[in-house]
């Protein structure tokens, strides 16, 4: 009788440890999501800032300036629900403005333009990177959260179900051409 | 930035991953970052000052061949001590799915981890069995890098998740500035690689040779690499053997001169390649490249725009393309020019900057979260008060 009790107790302890370990795993994933989301926010903000700076610098023609300013402003001001759309529109605006490489050459010859062009190149390259890392973390957390043990024992607690950040982040071709 | 890099394979054995890590570490050191590389090595091998030995790798049968791996208490302890002493801002693991130092580091590390996947192994049985263990360790990786679109696809299919593609780096100018060797010039085909490793494709090239030599009476083949030379030419008619020259293992300098000298570089590999660094090196040196149409090769050669492709394992197609290239100096000059322009994207200045971007993205996000909720390491060990910090 005592032997059986001890066995039951031992099994319960093992299950408990396993669940605690899984909860720790999930907690770590949620921290990772927070970190990747913060990184993505920082990169998006940086891209919008550089775009806005370029738009107000008078190195672009007035039409391009207005298009870019509108999009960058909207991206910075967007509410959480409209964020993905606004950022996608900024990507499209950037692609339209820098559709031909001459526009970029124009920026480069302006005073301080070389630095601005470099910053923009870096920003449009890092946004897709940060987004991929974020969505990778979201995917990993979702796969774990859909598991029975996590649902039955409510190991995720009150953490909201993680959502991927979906947007068009295709950079302008002129800015990513590394051959030159 | 304090960067810790983990190399899964023995430092004393030459290999693509080891060279990649060496060049990467030296690039970051040149920029003024602090770099430490943890690698398996015999305790008496001389190591560069930035390499820390993780002890000797043990040969173990794994995944169909004998791999030299590090595991066990001693290695795990060395990994933990290295992490603790280094206090790295970011830890960069290479080949995290091999049951060696990479995986051990994944278990022990708590800060931001970046991982590069080099090979595109089909999923092994061991990996299926260990899937849940592997998954728990791989979840700690904040950013994944694949060396080619092909490697990324394998990664996505086998492990889920996603990765950014950053190619392997090459010091383009080192190859571009090498001095050609007149002895290696004049209708020469070049091949570099293990002679006795069938996947490197020398047998395919040997099958194509009689036809190439028949149509181009002055052509020669130069082979650089280890292996049994007699066996390699065993199937070749006796009178043609004199036109195949074996150079044995060559130094980095001679490799660059070799690639500068040959008229066509042939890469007949039949499989198992996830990137093809040798093609990038050949293009850097201005050698026109003729390669089998493996996915990875086609991508490095810009789908055939920067070098010619032939149907994999098809000796006739190889012979036909080689004869055509040897007889057409105009086409060779064109390939040279396109190759040299295309290869700039693989230069360390570009590749290194991209990898640094990944580090900065990852550490930036982690710092933001740490500042927000400043809490200690989570997980079972800290819950039970066992964490070492």
From TrEMBL, chain B:
Task: Give GO MF terms, alphabetically.
Answer: hexosyltransferase activity
Extract the coiled-coil ranges from the record: none
Q: Tell me, what's a Pfam family for it?
A: Glyco_trans_1_4
What InterPro entries does the record point to? Glyco_trans_4-like_N, Glycosyltransferase_grp1
Q: Which GO terms describe its biological process?
A: carbohydrate derivative biosynthetic process
Q: What are the alphabetically sorted keywords of the record?
A: Glycosyltransferase, Transferase
Residues annotated as domain Glycosyltransferase subfamily 4-like N-terminal: 14-173
Question: What domain of life?
Answer: Bacteria
Q: PANTHER family attached here?
A: SULFOQUINOVOSYL TRANSFERASE SQD2
Protein's recorded name: GDP-mannose-dependent alpha-(1-2)-phosphatidylinositol mannosyltransferase
Q: Which organism is it from?
A: Streptomyces humidus
């Amino acid at each position: 009788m005592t032997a059986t009790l001890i066995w039951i107790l031992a099994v319960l302890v093992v299950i408990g440890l396993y669940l605690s370990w899984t909860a720790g795993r999930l907690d770590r994933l949620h921290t990772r999501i927070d970190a990747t989301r913060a990184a993505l926010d920082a990169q998006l903000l940086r891209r919008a800032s550089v775009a806005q700076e370029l738009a107000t610098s008078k190195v672009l023609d007035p039409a391009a300036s207005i298009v870019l300013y509108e999009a960058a402003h909207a991206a910075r001001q967007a509410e959480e629900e409209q964020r993905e759309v606004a950022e996608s529109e900024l990507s499209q605006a950037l692609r339209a403005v820098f559709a031909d490489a001459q526009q970029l050459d124009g920026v480069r010859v302006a005073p301080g333009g070389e630095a601005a062009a470099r910053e923009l190149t870096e920003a449009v390259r890092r946004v897709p990177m940060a987004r991929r890392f974020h969505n990778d973390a979201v995917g990993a957390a979702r796969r774990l959260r859909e598991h029975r043990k996590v649902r039955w024992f409510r190991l995720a607690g009150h953490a909201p179900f993680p959502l991927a950040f979906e947007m068009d982040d295709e950079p302008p071709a002129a800015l990513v051409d590394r051959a030159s | 930035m304090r960067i810790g890099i983990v190399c899964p394979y023995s430092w004393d054995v030459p290999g693509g991953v080891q060279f990649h890590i060496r060049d990467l570490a030296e690039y970051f050191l040149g920029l003024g970052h602090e770099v430490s590389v943890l690698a398996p090595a015999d305790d008496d091998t001389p190591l560069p000052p930035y390499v820390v030995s993780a002890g000797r790798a043990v040969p173990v049968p794994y995944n169909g061949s004998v791999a030299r791996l590090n595991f066990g208490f001693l290695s795990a302890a060395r990994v933990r001590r290295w992490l603790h002493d280094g206090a790295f801002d970011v830890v960069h693991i290479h080949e995290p799915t091999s049951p060696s130092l990479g995986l051990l580091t994944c278990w022990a590390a708590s800060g931001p981890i970046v991982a590069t996947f080099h090979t595109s192994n089909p999923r092994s049985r061991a990996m299926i069995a260990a899937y849940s263990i592997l998954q728990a360790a791989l979840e700690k990786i904040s950013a994944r890098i694949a060396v080619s679109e092909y490697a990324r696809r394998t990664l996505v299919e086998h492990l889920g998740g996603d990765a950014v593609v950053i190619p392997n780096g090459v010091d383009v100018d080192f190859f571009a500035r090498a001095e050609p060797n007149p002895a290696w010039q004049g209708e020469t085909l070049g091949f570099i690689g293990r002679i006795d490793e069938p996947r490197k494709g020398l047998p395919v090239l040997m099958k194509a040779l009689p036809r190439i030599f028949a149509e181009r009476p002055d052509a020669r083949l130069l082979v650089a690499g280890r292996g049994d030379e007699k066996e390699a030419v065993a199937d070749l008619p006796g009178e043609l053997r004199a036109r195949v020259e074996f150079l044995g293992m060559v130094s980095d300098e001679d490799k660059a001169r070799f690639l500068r000298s040959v008229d066509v570089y042939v890469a007949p590999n039949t499989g198992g390649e996830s990137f093809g660094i040798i093609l990038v090196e050949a293009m850097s040196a201005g050698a026109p490249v003729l390669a089998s149409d493996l996915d990875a090769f086609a991508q490095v050669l810009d789908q055939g725009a920067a070098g010619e492709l032939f149907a994999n394992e098809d000796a006739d197609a190889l012979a036909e393309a080689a004869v055509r290239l040897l007889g057409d100096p105009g086409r060779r000059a064109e390939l040279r020019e396109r190759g040299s322009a295309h290869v700039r994207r693989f230069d360390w200045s570009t590749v290194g900057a991209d990898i640094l971007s990944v580090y900065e993205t990852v550490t930036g996000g982690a710092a933001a979260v740490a500042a927000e909720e400043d809490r200690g390491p989570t997980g079972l060990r800290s819950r039970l008060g066992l964490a070492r910090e």
